């Protein structure tokens, strides 16, 4: 693992390696905050934790660059904690077990944390470097971006002094983001009293091995949603095998396409064989319907002890209907740019136990009216099942400004260094730029980063060969920032 520290450029990779050694899942960030404050003290720059729990650092301009515009380097400190079912990794205490595989850095059985560890490592590299030319630098490392952009939403006004924002949280080298979708979390809940179970058999049905993925970047990749696929099996089991729903646990992160789901069903013991055949048939259907996409589908049945209680029949049927009817995936593409997703929803998490059902969906859209329409559609769906719907974490989109001065500069530097033009795009994934811009409307913003595939999944990987040109661009852009 320590070989990662010696990859080129070392100034980025040794900082990224250090980040992998600090547990930093969303919601558990005390260790990484202290790590960043200690780092700032070590390299001799001003740093503090703001009232929102973000870390802010400031570095003076290099000699002769004092009159340049102030640049804000921005990323987020938290990472998505996903792991394969057999992993014993504890994200709150254990370092990430990263390794080199050809041109990629990966993690063993977990997310890698390159989203946004690479952005943070880049900001650290700038602060640590002794040979860069740059004007005044600010660094903002926000908290809990992955669970609702809480650090950006709570960012105090008047705290930052920058003129230009370089967001380091994009994930495909050569593509520069100039706009992003807004989003809102939708939660549907229903409380009920479980009833006594009188059936003599029970099974745990598990679906896993799906690809999952980032619900913004990969929502249009045609991947299976474990909750949706499980619902097909459960409905058939109820209708044909006399099954009754006991519990459901599917998905774990609101911004990740769920790659696994697990349900417990009570049923007559004599029908367990028939249910196993249904599961085998449903597995074949998934493999056929998602041929070339889902390559490691595992769908199986395990017999368990008969439970004492189960979900009442009418509530069970209403919940299954709601899962079926709930919109999931792309709703609409941008009419003027048919290759870009405009509006989508991700049925991310389903939790059903002996007294409550809770569904969590992340809605994204680059249009506020379509975001509201999608929320209303979900509210209508869940109200028919008797569920109460609430929203939280609402953030607006970032309207593209493809010809801004900073975009022009990065395009020029990229062209000079790589001999071709970069791709300028708007992104369906949510970026903190929109939230920060609402508090600091004068900022000139662009977002970019090295190549990171499959963030928010256990297949997350960072392309080693994308880091040197990415770092060269960062250095040159900072050297060419214009005067105030």
Descriptive overview:
The chain contains eleven helices and 25 strands. It has helices spanning 10-20, 30-43, 114-128, 150-153, 226-241, 272-289, 313-325, 368-383, 405-418, 433-439, 467-479; strands at residues 46-49, 55-59, 71-76, 98-101, 104-107, 137-142, 164-167, 175-180, 182-191, 195-196, 201-208, 213-214, 244-250, 256-257, 261-267, 298-303, 309-310, 329-334, 337-352, 356-365, 388-395, 423-427, 444-447, 452-453, 461-463. Strands 9, 11, 13, 15, 16, 18, 19, 20 and 21 form a nine-stranded antiparallel sheet that branches. It starts with 9 loop residues before the first helix and ends in a 5-residue tail after the last helix. The mean pLDDT is 96.
Topology readout:
Blueprint: H1 10-20, H2 30-43, E1 46-49, E2 55-59, E3 71-76, E4 98-101, E5 104-107, H3 114-128, E6 137-142, H4 150-153, E7 164-167, E8 175-180, E9 182-191, E10 195-196, E11 201-208, E12 213-214, H5 226-241, E13 244-250, E14 256-257, E15 261-267, H6 272-289, E16 298-303, E17 309-310, H7 313-325, E18 329-334, E19 337-352, E20 356-365, H8 368-383, E21 388-395, H9 405-418, E22 423-427, H10 433-439, E23 444-447, E24 452-453, E25 461-463, H11 467-479
Parallel strand pairs: 3-6, 3-7, 7-23, 8-22
Antiparallel strand pairs: 1-2, 2-6, 4-5, 5-25, 9-20, 9-21, 10-17, 11-15, 11-16, 12-14, 13-15, 13-19, 18-19, 19-20, 24-25
Helix pairs in contact: 1-3, 5-6, 5-7, 9-11
InterPro entries: Peptidase_M20 (IPR002933), Peptidase_M20_dimer (IPR011650), Peptidase_M20C (IPR001160)
Pfam families: M20_dimer (PF07687), Peptidase_M20 (PF01546)
Organism: Segatella cerevisiae
